[in-house]
Model the fold of this input.
Amino acid sequence: MHAPEQHAIIAGLPTLVPAGAAAPPQQPPLPQPPQVEGLAAEAAAAAAAAVVQDPAFEGFEGPEKTLEIDLLRGAGGEADADGRCGLRRIPREQWNELLDLAACKILSTVSNEHIDSYVLSESSLFVLSHKVMLKTCGTTTLLRIVPPLLAAIARLGMKVEWFNYSRKNFTYPHKQLSPHQSFDAEIAYLSTHFPGGEAFMLGPLNADHWYVYDWSSDESAAPGALEQSKDVVLDLMMFDMDPAVAAIFYKGKEAGAPAAAAVGAAADGAGAAAAAGGGGGGQQAAGGAPAEEGADAAPADAAALATAGEATQQQQAAADLVASREVAQRSGIASIFPGALLDGALFDPCGYSVNGLLFDSYFTIHVTPEPQCSYASFETTTCLRSYSSLIKNVLQVFKPKRLVMTLFTDDGAKKVIKEHPFLARTLDVPKIGQFKMKGHSTSRFEAGHTCEMCNWVLDESGEPETSPERRVRKQTMD
Done:
């Protein structure tokens, strides 16, 4: 694997800070267990080989279905006992019930002053006081969450201002469940809840394209809200990753063993202490007056087993945390937004998700490393004056051969962005090569939002677009 080289490249890029924001605090160094790298490489290679040899595995639908709901300001602002307002008043237990309808569950959560971030079994959920963003992959039934979520919003005394659903065309459409069998079916379903919405398709019909359903309320936003808003969502959907990069995202028991031993020592000690305590108690009983056979043995054994089981769970959780952080560090993901609050999960046997919080914006990454369906996505709501360094940074991490890039902006964000990411027809990425634009589509929505979609393909000829050899050959062909 090329993890050290990747990290050196990324570390050399400028730190990315949202427009108008102060520099973020630095996170403490992630733990690096000794002598894990070689074992991790061997384990990842073995896991990857096992997947390749499985003839029953057709592929996994990595590209996500995404919905965003923005609520009108000025309602539902009352804070709960924890100081949370609006949608953030919905407890985790209720989100779990809603997500059951989408066939996914919450794995972990972190929060900052502005956002509650949830890593899901299939992608991510982000909750702000007046906004919710939900991404799910695979065969999840994302839109089934809409009716009960709208009911929960109404109970909070809040109203929907803007709804948007989007997804790339499916790779395995025959695997999808209702109402996701087709975009026509999704339109019909959404029209019952958001009548009058508009449906769009961006990109070529016979290649990668992007579906969007957009709805806006007739009620106006608060005076000045649109001028102050800087809503942006940049999404990179990357295909055909470098195999050495993909191997990083396999979970190998051999790779995790040193990390588990290093971080789980305290849990081991707790389990041993619990076992010793149980044994001591039994010896003490045996040394005193004879007890009725089995009278206290079962409760003591059960308590010891429960304590040992809890210690084992703590050890496994600690090992999983180290594995996730190690992947973020080795892959270079941890350096994309230095200082971001990260929460990730490395799946068994493979796959990876991580959410990152930075002030009032987020980023999220999801990786499907199997060679049949190699895919990684990167999404962020961070508003930057230029996305050039960020995009190259992300591409250097995953080294894809094909890229679909989408960009949502409102009028406020357009004023901040000084260097539009779709203006150039080529994208030169150090250590990878040149990506060529294969098409660019744009649609503008009623609420002042604009969505853009662009396909890029890595030029593997080894000659840049502006090289003398390329110009000579092009003139000859013309």
Notes: Residues 1-19, 22-40, 253-297, 467-478 have pLDDT under 50 and may be disordered.
